[in-house]
Amino acid sequence: MSPRTMLAVAGLAIAVVVSLMAGGHWSSPLQVWHALWSPSPTDVDDLLIRTIRMTRTLVALTVGAGLGVAGGIMQTLTRNPLASPGLLGVNAGALLVVVCLATLGSGLPGWLASGGAFAGAALAALAVWAIAMRPAAPSGPLRLILAGAALSALFHAFSQALLVIDQQGLDAMLFWLAGSVAARPLTQVWPLMLVTLAVLLACWPCLRQWNVLAAGEAVALGAGISVWRLQLISVVCVVLLAGAAVAMAGNIVFIGLIVPHLARRLAGSDHRHWLPLAALLGAALLLVADVMSRTLVPPREVPIGVMTALLGAPVFMALVRRQGGRHG
């Protein structure tokens, strides 16, 4: 393990401890230790840490890691440094399905919303793939970006039309629109956590091939790699990671965009080094955003999607300026 990776692991561990401490009532590190290793069934702090804070910390860890890796795969697949998982339409597709479900009744169970969001993300990405990608066809990644942008705009338009018609549905959709890792019961999200963990582990055999694909499709074909098959695997990984993230936490922006850039700057261009680091940095960044959302304007909470936008927008503008300077 490289020194930078070790530093990222240490930073993530600190972020986890601070996340377990933070809230309207701050707990001490000693209270966190007591809650984790020798909890009391009657102690309020122990119950708060082990139930509410532990669950939202686990959700933030899983969502951040999944989005960080999904963004890195998407940038490799499209060879576009400004690509993010949203280009496949997963966010827009998930939102459209959840909005449709919300308009069918006054109450939308959490498990149904999560399942619908995951299904919507998968169906949207499948539609983008069917339109854009063909075996042995040139310019597949470019068509993927264009098809994703077009279908995302279409899905958002339908969602907004339904929300304008159904004001009650708009109130129910605030969680998905702003993003949040709070009030997510562990019994509801643990299947999505397992999906994310399984996909992160399954990415490991593809790291060398993604190194070759990053050099271009012609190079990958010359190396004997089935480019279309690798592209399909990449899309499936992005869909599962981003779909699970949206289903757990709603619309979280910028994590999948900026984290891969930070990881490459720290670990170089080898996917075997920077993609695992992207998982660590994504988890840490989302935890930091969640802690800030809880403590910025107490006792209220700022939506975590707003915090990631506030943290990510300056970095995004710096990336755009850097790219412009390189090509200018």
From TrEMBL:
Principal localisation: membrane
Subcellular location: Cell membrane
InterPro entries the UniProt entry points to: ABC_BtuC-like, ABC_transptr_permease_BtuC
Keyword set includes Calcium: no
Domain of life: Bacteria
Record flagged with keyword Membrane: yes
Membrane-crossing segments per the record: 51-74, 86-105, 111-132, 144-165, 185-203, 210-227, 233-262, 274-296, 302-320
SUPFAM superfamilies linked to this entry: ABC transporter involved in vitamin B12 uptake, BtuC
Pfam family of the protein (one): FecCD
Keywords associated with the record: Cell membrane, Membrane, Transmembrane, Transmembrane helix, Transport
UniProt topology in membrane: Multi-pass membrane protein
UniProt record similarity statement: Belongs to the binding-protein-dependent transport system permease family. FecCD subfamily.
Protein name: Iron ABC transporter permease
Organism of this sequence: Salinicola endophyticus
